[in-house]
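ok so for the tutorial part 2 we go from a plain amino acid sequence to predicted structure tokens. step 1 is just haveing the sequence, like this:
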Amino acid sequence: MIPHLKKPVNDTFIFELIIPSLPGFGYSDGSNKPKCQTPHVAHILKNLMKRLGHEKFYVHGSDWGGIVANNMATLFPKNVLGFHSNFCISLRYISIVKLILGSLYPRIIVSYEFESKLYPLRSLLRFYFAESGYLHIQGTKPDTIGISLENSPEGLLAFMLEKLSVGTNKNNVHVDNAGLDKFDKTLLMDIIMFYYWFPKSATTSGRFYAENLNVDAFRYGLHK
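step 2 — the prediction. this is what the tokens look like for a chain of 224 residues:
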């Protein structure tokens, strides 16, 4: 998205892009306080924008960034002019109930053109069960997996390529080379080396999962 946003629009204006890493990811230090959850990061990034001289701004996010951007739009509506995400998700209990009810009659939850993305529910759950092992270990034992990945380039490469493959297209589990032949290998190595290997961020980024995937976070409705 970055090259497109950098191009002038009708020669009248251009976006100024602020692209931070979340705490614990890339070269951003991990939090030195426990329970650093997405609403806290939303507050940090809002303060960052104010320090840079921006009282009002647009936000975009994906994955954890999508949840943080959602929190920013919810908590600071006077500052956020617009919110865009490719990671629209709700983990509230009522949302889960609605998802289950939709398995009886999908059209009450989703339009026909998107029905296959959610239903049949057994296929969706089977995929999540098979592909969410990383989520469980990072959400419960982040230091164990983090230290392992920070000390083994081969282990980090295997871990990241597997997630980049299935995370970009779930059908890659059925194709030769896991669909990795479609990627620019230099770009893949840049992502892995500069975002995880050089800064040694596997542990701190894993801890962010543990802080957010727990009973307290769901009890207080932090993921909406």
